[in-house]
Amino acid sequence: MRVLIVDDNYMICRLLQQQIDWTGLGCEEPDVAHNGVEAIEKIENNPPDIVISDVRMPVMDGMEFCQLVSERWPQISLLFMSAYEDFAAAQMAIRHNVKDYILKPFDRERLGLLENVLRNIIKQREHEELHTKIIADEYLNFLVNVIEERNVEALEDFLGMVHDLGKVKAARKSNIWPHLIKPIFAYRYSLYNQDPGMLAQEEQRMGEELATLGWEARVDYLRGQYQSMMREEADAADCDIVIAVRKVIKDQFASPQLNIHMLGRLFHMSPTYLGRIFLERTGMKLVDYITEKRMQYACEQLSSTLKTVKEIAEEAGYSDANYFSRAFRRKTGMSPVEYRVKYRNLDEKKLWESVANKGEQK
Fold first, then answer.
1. Under a CB-based contact definition with an 8 Å cutoff, are residues 49 and 1 in contact?
2. Cα gap 344→257, rounded to integer Å
3. Where does a domain end: 184, 201, 235?
4. Which end of the chain is less enclosed by CB atoms within 10 A, N or C?
5. Would residue 335 be called left, alpha or beta, if left means φ above 0 and alpha means ψ between -120 and 50 degrees?
6. C-alpha–C-alpha distance, residues 246 and 290, integer Å
7. pLDDT per residue over 209-254, tens digit each?
8. Beta bridge mates, 102
9. Looking at 58, 93, 122, which one is the last position of a domain?
10. Has residue 98 got a pLDDT over 90?
11. CA–CA distances in Å: residue 324 to residues 91, 253, 254, 302
């Protein structure tokens, strides 16, 4: 958290830099400006999170400075300080969303009051940032990893922050809960390859159950759901192998050598045992899963590129284009050429231009 102190009194600036525990508050050592114009230049170069400004200064006074900052940088939290109980300044502070008004001179008590104000501002900003990140699904991968790693401590830390978020009016009005149950179903789908339709119905049901609860009860409900998933993960030790196998397939499906026997050697298991684990955990045969990944790639390339069928077959792990075509027909019910004609994303003009350009290059 970055702080800018604006005061024409050098001693006041130095006092605030030295007498407040900025590190303990989670802030960098404050930068300093001695009038509003200098402060604006510093804000333009590197906007702070918090500005503590004197009211009466030369060149540009605090009220003019406050108005300009609130208009141009509304995300900055503003604090006023003054040696005068200036009612006009207090009114200005209210109009321009100034967080508080601190009187000088500073003694230990007033410094303590300032620290409390700063602490509250920082906590509020942290809540706002957490809320924004949850809504943007920035915690999705983190929470999926929490389940995979069975990290109870990380879960409790996160749910503690969500619990405190209930104190923020904006958070209580918005619906963050679909974003907090989404990782559970993203994990279940990625690991177990469960039916998306059934998962969507269950996700909706969970959302409806959450909607009937108060804030604290919702946090407890989430805790129970995440812990349940962690227990499933703990009971399924073989899932780690399945995850690793799926990663190898994702990375190496283009290799013609990729098959159940190669995977068995890689993971030091018999192909039969590995195939059984994979089927139990995903509901899909390992051979079918490899084919699925290869066909997904082939369909994507056929619909979005002008590569030849032979080129796509090789890139999908098939050394024999004829065998690929037969396998593709069994999977999709049509030949690669028929699929391309039906689903290609290139319009006719772009398709003709691409073909023409290839001819010119030859």
1. yes
2. 30
3. 235
4. C
5. beta
6. 9
7. 988 999 999 999 999 999 988 877 655 556 678 888 999 999 999 9
8. 81
9. 122
10. no
11. 76, 14, 13, 13
pLDDT at 48 over 60: yes
54 phi/psi in degrees, rounded to 5: -70, 155
Which among 275, 283, 285 has a CA at the least distance from the CA of 194?
283
Contact 161, 130 (CB under 8 A): yes
DSSP letter string over 175-192? --HHHHHHHHHHHHHHHH
Same domain, 10 and 115: yes
**CA separation for the pair 264, 339 (Å, rounded):** 34
User: Residue 326 is part of a domain; what is its CATH number?
Assistant: 1.10.10.60
The residue type found at 312 is I
* Number of domains observed in the structure of the chain: 3
For 266-297, give one letter per residue: b (16+ CB within 10 A) or e. Answer: ebebebeebbebbeebbeeebeebbbbbbbeb
Question: Residue 353 falls within a domain, yes or no?
Answer: yes
Rounded CA-CA distance 310/314 in Å is: 6
Establish if 130 belongs to a structural domain. Answer: no
Any domain includes 66: yes
pTM of the prediction? 0.52
Cβ(327)–Cβ(299) under 8 Å? Answer: no
256-288 residue pLDDT tens:
999 999 999 998 888 888 898 888 888 899 999
CB atoms within 10 A of CB 4: 21
Contact between residue 111 and residue 20 where contact means Cβ atoms under 8 Å apart: yes
Q: Could you give the residue ranges of the DSSP H alpha helices within the chain? A: 10-19, 22-25, 36-45, 62-72, 87-95, 108-135, 140-149, 152-165, 169-173, 177-192, 196-211, 215-235, 239-252, 260-266, 271-282, 286-304, 309-315, 321-332, 336-343, 348-361
What CATH number does residue 115 fall under? Answer: 3.40.50.2300
Task: Answer yes or no: is pLDDT of 148 > 50.
Answer: yes
DSSP letter assigned to residue 30: P
Q: Are residues 159 and 107 in the same domain?
A: no
- DSSP string covering 221-287, please? HHHHHHHHHHHHHHH-TTHHHHHHHHHHHHHHTT-TT-SHHHHHHHTTS-HHHHHHHHHHHHSS-HH
* Domain span holding position 202: 137-235
Same domain for 179 and 273, yes or no, is no
Which tokens belong to 142?
Answer: 């983190």
